[in-house]
Design a protein that fits this description.
Strand content: 15-25%
Number of strands: 3
Largest sheet: 3 strands, antiparallel
Number of helices: 3
Order of helices and strands: EHEEHH
Shape: elongated
């Protein structure tokens, strides 16, 4: 299955290239709090995204299990945090 992933952050910079570089540095920093993503299933339906917040306290396996316990209808009601 393919997914679309979106990560959004506000960055102060003098120009677009500097802004992109700062965002890239933030995303790659192991201590970064840039851990919230909007995720869409790439199935052509373009439904509302699921909001996923990753942290060290939550494992990815637990997040995936929580997502799988929801129905397509629940997922289409707007962004949810898992």
């Amino acid at each position: 299955m393919e997914y679309f992933i979106e990560w959004t952050i506000e960055v102060d910079a003098d120009n677009p290239v500097e802004a992109a570089k700062r965002a890239w540095e933030m995303m790659r920093n192991p201590d970064s709090t840039a851990n919230v993503f909007q995720v869409w299933k790439n199935d052509g339906a373009c439904k509302e995204p699921v909001q996923i917040e990753l942290s060290e306290e939550e494992g990815c396996d637990e997040l995936a299990a929580a997502y799988e316990r929801t129905t397509d209808e629940e997922r289409s009601n707007g962004p949810k945090r898992y």
